[in-house]
Amino acid sequence: TILVLGASGQIGNELTQRLRVLYGNNNVIASDIREGNNQMMSSGPFELIDATDKETILKVIKKYNVSQVYLLAAMLSATAEKFPQKAWDLNMNSLLAVLDLAKEKHIKQVYWPSSIAVFGPTTPKENTPQKTIMEPSTVYGISKLSGEFWCNYYHKKYGVDVRSLRYPGIISWKTKPGGGTTDYAVDIYFKAIEDGNYECFLSENTRLPMMYMNDAVEATIKIMQAKPKDVKIRSAYNLAAIDFTPKEIALEIKKHIPNFTITYKPDFRQEIADSWPSSINDNDAKQDWNWNPKFDLESMTEDIISNLKAE
Ligand code: VAH
Predict the structure, then answer these.
(1) Would you state the pLDDT for residue 79?
(2) pLDDT tens digits, residue range 126-161?
(3) ipTM of this predicted complex?
(4) Whose CA is nearest to atom 5 of ligand 1?
(5) 37 neighbors 10 (Cβ within 8 angstroms)
(6) What are phi and psi of 165, to 5 degrees?
(7) Disulfide-capable partner of 266 in 188, 270, 274, 287 (CB 3.0 to 4.6 Å)?
């Protein structure tokens, strides 16, 4: 069976839903520090777990005979700047707990997400390579880069089968975002439908690498299903799909909601966004395990707006 830690979060929620479709509801145990929405709670097993608490995770692993753990619990970039010590503790202690459980052979496989936040202001911004200068300037980025080194260490030294992807900003409509800098690209759709206007906390030409949730979930499952020998990079793979600016996404939304207006009021998150790349090179993921995104800005916007209108 599969255990998802952080199942109530933006990615965890949709990943759990998809895993339950693929593997069967009762074979995917959802867990988080707080209960999930009723769809999550009613469609399969749920356990309250603090992802830094190794003993509780082990108890659940034994209770359900878990062989794979997806660790999606973390504190994201904007919130982490407000609570650095808590962010470091949560992001690192949860990873080390799960890696140790794999090292001790309690589980067979681990998924842990990294992020484009591992890149910093000195990283080449365009078509950022897999291997390059990485001097993250955010607490979240520091924790993700450290986590990548730990994943690679546990794989090389103890043979732990841990796999990781550097997610770009992920756009979804089913769950509200959780304290990230790219969250403007989630909020903008909700506000366009509800209010017809949006005040953006990033400047209009801030280009960031992004991806529709559907593609992010598929990439996650694809790398976990890949043959071990094909997963050549055991720190974390660059992963790309689209990149856009607030101005470009607003224009795309206007095609569906002609009266939609956007204003710009950059806040502390502008500095975080400015430290990240504007586009990513993911040739390694394409070559090693056939990564291939499906959504662009146009098809993503079409899908989100039609779903939000239906709601
Ligand atoms: C954040 N959504 O904004 C996350 C992600 C690259 C962005 O790490 O913190």
Answers:
(1) 95
(2) 999 999 999 999 999 999 999 999 999 999 999 999
(3) 0.94
(4) 169
(5) no
(6) -130, 140
(7) 270
Contact 72, 12 (CB under 8 A): yes
Please name the residue whose Cα sits nearest to atom 7 of ligand 1. Answer: 169
Record the pTM.
0.96
User: Two tokens at 195?
Assistant: 């209010």
Residue-averaged pLDDT of the chain: 97
Counted residue by residue, the chain has a size of 311
**Which has the closest alpha carbon to 249: 270, 264, 271?**
264
Distance 104 CA to ligand 1 centre (A): 31
pLDDT of residue 176 exceeding 80, the answer is no
**Cα 113 to ligand 1 centre (Å):** 11
Instruction: Write out the catalytic residue numbers.
Output: 140
Encoded tokens for 301: 């916007």
Closest by alpha carbon to 213, among 155, 257, 270, 172?
A: 172
Looking at residue 36, its pLDDT comes to 87
